[in-house]
């Protein structure tokens, strides 16, 4: 059966109850969606399970959606193992008195889902009989998945993952921590180009430089050395000579030549 046929069949089974059929999603994810009044919640689940054409005998999941002033949508997804089609069943309960019938007697596996929905949204499931805490400690107060619930961690300290200005006093995220020896992304390689940006690919091929190349300062020209300077007899400038007037490496010594001892004068003495 197509999603449209599944929705029409559920509406026929619930007549004269006012049920509205539609289709959620699209393509291979399309699902028949039927909205029913809270008073007909359990009857709709039973009809979908017991009808031979529908055969929705597997409870996939049950949860809720906070619609603020409009109340809460209790959502149940059923699946037919034999016919390979599904049904999204919904009902809306008021915010001031969120109560709906339990379907544990029809699908025992709904016990866990109803306990979680009761704990997170504060919705009561009449007839469940055991809506004790499931995920939170018994002393926990409030229902965390209600949209007006304020997370205590954001009150106690600034939220480190703030994305919008004013979301917290921090005004930014945490500084990323890199493993030792790994350079920052802007110090080496290329930055991958986001997919779809002017058709460029990702990675080094098609990437953009992470940062402009750094220009090294020009080195000062070294003074000329060799026979040319020796023939000219010009001494190096004061700022080019080595410390204490010594010549720089590779330069010929300057100054008066050293006097060699006269061997004849030594013999005469």
Describe it for me?
This protein has about 270 residues and is of the alpha/beta class. It has six helices and nine strands; from the N terminus they run H-E-E-H-E-E-E-E-H-E-H-E-E-H-H. The strands form three sheets. It has a five-stranded mixed β-sheet. Strands 6-7 form a two-stranded parallel ribbon. The protein has a two-stranded antiparallel ribbon with strand order 8-9. The relative contact order is 0.07. Mean pLDDT is about 75; it is low at about 190-210.
Task: Summarize it.
This protein has 269 residues and is α/β, with parallel strands linked by helices.
What percentage of residues falls in helices of 4 or more residues?
Answer: 10-25%
Coarse structural class: alpha/beta
Q: Write the H/E string, N to C.
A: HEEHEEEEHEHEEHH
For the secondary structure, the number of strands is 9
Mean pLDDT across every amino acid position:
76
Order the strands across the largest sheet as they lie in space.
1-2-5-4-3
Question: Helical stretch count?
Answer: 6
Give the amount of beta strand, in percent: 15-25%
Rg over C-alpha atoms, rounded to the nearest angstrom: 42 Å
Per the principal axes of the C-alpha atoms, what is the gross shape?
Answer: elongated
């Amino acid at each position: 059966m197509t999603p449209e046929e599944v929705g029409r069949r559920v509406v026929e089974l619930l007549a004269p109850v006012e049920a509205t059929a539609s289709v959620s999603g699209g393509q291979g994810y399309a699902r028949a969606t039927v909205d029913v009044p809270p008073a007909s919640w359990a009857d709709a689940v039973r009809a979908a399970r017991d009808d031979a054409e529908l055969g929705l005998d597997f409870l996939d999941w049950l949860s809720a959606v906070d619609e603020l002033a409009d109340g809460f949508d209790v959502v149940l997804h059923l699946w037919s193992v034999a016919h390979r089609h599904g049904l999204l069943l919904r009902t809306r309960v008021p915010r001031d008195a969120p109560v709906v019938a339990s379907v544990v007697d029809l699908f025992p596996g709904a016990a866990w889902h109803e306990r979680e929905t009761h704990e997170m949204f504060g919705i009561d499931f009449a007839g469940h009989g055991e809506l004790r805490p499931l995920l939170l400690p018994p002393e926990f107060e409030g229902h965390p998945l209600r949209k007006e619930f304020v997370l205590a961690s954001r009150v106690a300290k600034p939220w480190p993952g703030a994305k919008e200005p004013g979301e917290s006093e921090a005004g930014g995220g945490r500084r990323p921590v890199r493993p030792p020896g790994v350079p920052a992304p802007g110090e080496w390689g290329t930055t991958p180009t986001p997919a779809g940006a002017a058709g460029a690919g990702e990675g080094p091929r098609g990437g953009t430089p992470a940062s402009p190349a750094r220009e090294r300062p020009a080195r000062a020209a070294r003074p000329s050395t060799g026979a040319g300077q020796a023939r000219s007899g010009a001494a190096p400038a004061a700022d080019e000579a080595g410390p204490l007037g010594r010549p720089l490496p590779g330069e010929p010594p300057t100054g008066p030549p050293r006097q060699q001892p006269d061997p004849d004068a030594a013999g005469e003495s």
